[in-house]
Amino acid sequence: MGSWIGAAREFDLAQCARGQTLTGRGKRSGRQYPTGEQYDVNYDQIFDQAIDRLHAEGRYRVFIDILRNKGAYPNARCFAGHNGPKPITVWCSNDYLAMGQHPKVIEAMESALHDVGAGSGGTRNIGGNTHYHVDLEYELADLHGKEGALLFTSGYVSNDTTLTTLGKLLPGCVIFSDELNHASMIAGIRNSGCEKRVWRHNDIAHLEELLAAEDEATPKLIAFESVYSMDGDVAPIHAICDLADKYNALTYIDEVHAVGMYGARGGGISERDDAASRIDIIEGTLGKAFGVMGGYIAADKRIIDCVRSYAPGFIFTTSLSPVLVAGVLASVRHLKSSSVEREAQQASAAFLKDAMRDAGLPVMDSTTHIVPLMVGDPVRAKKISDILLAEYGVYVQPINFPTVPRGTERLRFTPGPAHTEQMMRDLVGALVEIWDRLELELRKAA
Active-site positions? Predict the structure, then answer.
């Protein structure tokens, strides 16, 4: 998942149709309106022009056709643009710790498949609580030191559904949102119907100014992330909690890029910074560091019960396959007791940042495992990505608007514990060659 910035905060698909003509026949015939006028809407033309604009701006998204090699991550096979599979190295996966390849995870999923079959049988209301779900929610609540947890089908759904539900349950609630919050958080806040106040990224003074302007009796919710995945920076959690205490606000933290990655047991930045007990709702994903699929929240039992009982995005959605849940359960339990993967990943990220910096590549400052390389132009970012894949067997996806602001397009690398130092040296050498070929500027060594 990426962040939506500035104007992208209010990005509405309806804008795609702005400026479109309603005249001229296409495959769909015109409709007679009560006024007697006839408007012919060419739907095909509208859709074609929407896609053409993306091509013109250089930010049309192409999804690579690959298969990962079991037990050999980051090695994979690419099927695009050539005959048969081509060996490649993956550099942008959010399976940060390669837990999707871990023998314990695969074995647990295979065992569950042969034990209970493939699917869950429907919603938990109808199909029941598969016992794997009960066990995993217990483990996740324990991971964050909370009374309860609730599973969703993805991190996007957990954010959208929970924020929507909380906003509707709290009368007159005002939600305070960091300006770099993820699109799923923005969607949940919008769908809640609450008033919102957007505070400048990690700007505690601005947040307090907005909080102080509200009536003391108004319910307030502060929503923010721990690790912001496009820049790799971290929220000042304790300072935010201090303001929440001062102004009687609930706190909601998105830890999707931190769970499994930080803390002695993988509880995220809130565990690392000894702040989990100060956060009311902790949201996380099961599809990144834990390597499988799904999302969740952890909170006190009262909040969990309210979301479980009122959230359409939970009530009316088929629950996660027990096969997936079994895999996550093995992953969470393993990472609670093992820091080997975390330490190796952090070492890889530090090595790659230093190597890029020493080579003069424009690597952005990052205090986390994210390694963003600034390009600043969508066409060039796509060109660099294409050359890396075609000529060097390196896969890294360009990051463009609306995930990041226009003019800050970048390549986002996520080296993992299985990326070797030689792989990273080869990658840096390839980037330097491409930078020279495209006549891009390298930074001079200090």
Answer: 288
